[in-house]
UniProtKB/TrEMBL annotation:
Gene3D superfamilies reported in the protein's UniProt record: Globins
Domain of life the protein comes from: Bacteria
Domain Globin-sensor residues, every copy: 15-157
Organism ancestry: Bacteria, Bacillati, Cyanobacteriota, Cyanophyceae, Nostocales
Name of the featured protein: Globin-sensor domain-containing protein
Coiled coil start-end: none
InterPro entries, per the entry: Globin-like_sf, Globin-sensor_dom, Globin/Proto
GO molecular function: heme binding; oxygen binding
Family annotation (CDD domains): SSDgbs_1
Length: 184
């Protein structure tokens, strides 16, 4: 069930509707993205810090929160630059971010609300700075693509682990899930 990050990226671009116009507008605001990344990181970690469970994860090791602040700035800026025009480098990077979160045990219930904070706070800042709705829409779409990577990593890692441990076929696994879901 392993995914190929570039193919997944292409599929998500189509499904979510990230267009070449979106990419152009994001690129033309890369400086704005970098200038606002630290403020967005502050909003993000203040929000996560208010949740007891997430706060414990953030402060589990010495210097983690400080490191995270820096990686958030890079992540935020990369949404505007697209790194390699939203190509293999971008897709591999997003897949890796997904895997990092799965390893730490961060699931959809943590990631979805966290991404909604990013979308909300960035929208507020764009309005304050008089930026266009087109930019806000483009950012919303790339945020959803990044979110899809983290969520998909969760599903892929969980199912691969079960398949490896049990030796079940993918078809059997899917059948068991379908049966389990109907009995819930
Ligand atoms: C919008 C959702 C999120 C984004 C975009 C995001 C972004 C990132 C990035 C870019 C990294 C660095 C990955 C690497 O090492 O290459 C990271 C790591 C990490 N994130 Fe997130 N994150 C999100 C949600 C969360 C949530 C909800 C938590 C919960 C507490 C969290 C906690 C962590 C932790 C603990 C690490 C590892 C830090 C370390 O290296 O020790 N993240 N995240």
């Amino acid at each position: 069930m392993a995914i190929e990050p570039t193919a997944f990226m292409t599929k998500m671009e189509t499904r979510i509707g990230l267009t070449s116009e979106d990419k152009s507008i994001l690129k033309s605001h890369a400086d704005w993205g970098l200038a606002n990344a630290s403020t967005m990181a502050d909003h993000f970690y203040t929000y996560l810090g208010r949740d007891e469970e997430m706060n414990a994860i953030l402060n589990k090791s010495e210097g983690r929160i400080h490191r995270l602040h820096e990686t958030f700035i890079q992540w935020f800026h990369q949404m505007f630059t697209g790194m390699d025009d939203w190509g293999k480098g971008y897709a591999d990077c997003r897949w890796h971010i997904g895997l990092v979160h799965v390893k730490i045990g961060i699931g959809p219930q943590h990631v979805v609300p966290a991404m909604s904070v990013v979308v909300h706070e960035v929208g507020k800042q764009l309005r304050i700075d008089g930026k266009s709705e087109d930019l806000q829409d483009a950012l919303g779409r790339i945020c959803m693509i990044d979110l899809a990577f983290i969520e998909q990593a969760y599903v892929e890692v969980s199912s691969s682990a079960v398949l490896r441990e049990t030796g079940w076929s993918e078809a059997l696994f899917k059948r068991l899930i379908a049966t389990g879901a109907s009995s819930m």
